[in-house]
Amino acid sequence: MADLQFFAARMMPALARWCRLIGLDVEYTVSMDDNEFISKTKEENRILLTRDVKLYQRATAKGVEAFLLESPDQIANLAQTAKRFKFPLEINPDRSRCPKCNTKIKSVQKAEVEGKVPEKTLAHYDEFWQCPNCGQIYWRGAHWREIEKTLAEAQRTLEG
Questions:
Q1: What is the pTM of this model?
Q2: Rounded to the nearest 10 degrees, what angle do helices 13-22 and 74-85 cross at?
Q3: Does a structural domain hold residue 115?
Q4: What is the rounded distance in angstroms from the CA atom of residue 67 to the CA atom of residue 55?
Q5: How many domains does the chain have?
Q6: 138: how many CB neighbours lie within 10 A of its CB?
Q7: Predicted confidence (pLDDT) per residue in 8-38, tens digit
């Protein structure tokens, strides 16, 4: 899994975030045109993830490895990508990347996030992770059930 590197096309922000949480290196931007996007993907030896048939065709014609996703549904796309590239649909924060900037997150002591997260959060949770690049702090809060539910649904889609 560590050797997989992707570049998600503009219409794939949710897939990029999910893959980063799982621990995959996924670049994503909305500021490039298709030619720049294809060039950068090739230059960095990444795999293009897209729903755009024309972009897919242009990229593969230029020797870029690409994967064409056909569904507008983010869960189906996550399942298809996991199936194609054989990665588990599970989150281990020790492997996760920041969903915002793609930097590998680091475990931090509770004392290090004091004053940076709500007091109730600090009182109820003991494990925290922080992005060393953008400073975003993560914990397994109430939203964690939704994350697990989405991953379970993607797993069912994968198996179905």
A1: 0.93
A2: 50
A3: yes
A4: 11
A5: 2
A6: 19
A7: 998 899 999 999 999 999 999 888 899 999 9
